[in-house]
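In the previous lecture we treated proteins in isolation. Real proteins rarely work alone, and many bind small molecules. This record shows how such a complex is specified: first the sequence, then the SMILES for NDP.
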Amino acid sequence: MCRAETSVMVNACTGKMGHAVAEAVVRAGLDLIPFSITGESEAVVVGNVGVSGIPVQLVGADKRQQAISDIMRDKPGLIVVDFTLPGAVNENAKFYCDNGLPFVMGTTGGDRVQLTRDTEESGVYAVIAPQMGKQVVAFQATMEMMAQNFPGAFSGYKLSVRESHQRTKVDTSGTAKEIVRSFQQLGVEPFEVDAIQRVREAGQQMGEMHVPEKALSGHAFHTYHLTSPDGTVNFEFQHNVVGREIYAEGTVDAVLFLASKIKEKAEQRIFNMVDVLRAGAMR
Ligand SMILES: NC(=O)C1=CN([C@@H]2O[C@H](COP(=O)(O)OP(=O)(O)OC[C@H]3O[C@@H](n4cnc5c(N)ncnc54)[C@H](OP(=O)(O)O)[C@@H]3O)[C@@H](O)[C@H]2O)C=CC1
Ligand SMILES: O=C(O)C1=N[C@H](C(=O)O)C[C@H](O)C1
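The predicted 3D structure, ligand included, written as tokens:
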């Protein structure tokens, strides 16, 4: 499928990630649908948001079914991207599934088991991942491989995890939650995801996590620290991202990957970003 045949609807262009992704879609030469489903903000009253000079009309929940039906009629190659909020994940995914719409779900949180179940049952193609940034995905894949190859290698080690994000982030890092799964398989002392420390206060972010002041409104700093049982050995892994570009570019990769899977009528229908990376589909 050529790029121009792939039409992309980004929900919600009013948000920080949605806007960055919509811009990346335009940069990549894909067809950006000039409609975006959004939440309850006043922006809906204003009516539209500009994306790289393109006016994108905002659609509230009450009008979304009509809008989707109209768009699907005109654009059979439609793929939806969702960067909304944890509280909207399951409801939005169900809406895409009910409409038979392939989707890239970048939004974190919600009930992830339910999300996978609904998607499986609907048979739609989807990429679902809390992390779209190529190099972070590669780190995530590396940790998964370490856990598979050397289960128990960090047996008895104590894990601590700290993540810092812009203060508007409502949930704990979905990426950290996934990476903790690998550490669990590596045998660390019992560690549940609710032990991940969330840093949202500017003073602590700059003072302890070394977040640059200009990045307070958009950053994702993660530190995983491991200490041996006797305290003589320490390991530390970090991935510190300023801004949103790597996620936006990775999302475009996910869209193009999904379009190719749909075209080849692939048997597997649900993917994550490690699948996209392994397929060599990240630029
Ligand atoms: N996978 C990845 O690589 C990444 C994932 N994320 C995730 O993306 C999500 C969004 O982050 P961010 O852009 O910073 O958040 P923002 O708060 O900036 O944006 C959220 C947007 O969602 C909209 N929204 C809320 N409810 C609904 C709904 N029911 N339907 C449609 N739109 C809705 C809001 O609109 P309104 O104001 O109208 O309510 C708002 O525009 C988070 O879950 C975050 O963790 C972030 C970065 C990278
Ligand atoms: O909300 C964010 O900003 C981010 N969310 C994702 C997550 O929760 O893992 C990815 C990255 O940390 C940025």
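Summary for your notes: The mean pLDDT is 96. Residues 134-242 form a domain with the Dihydrodipicolinate Reductase; domain 2 fold (CATH 3.30.360.10).
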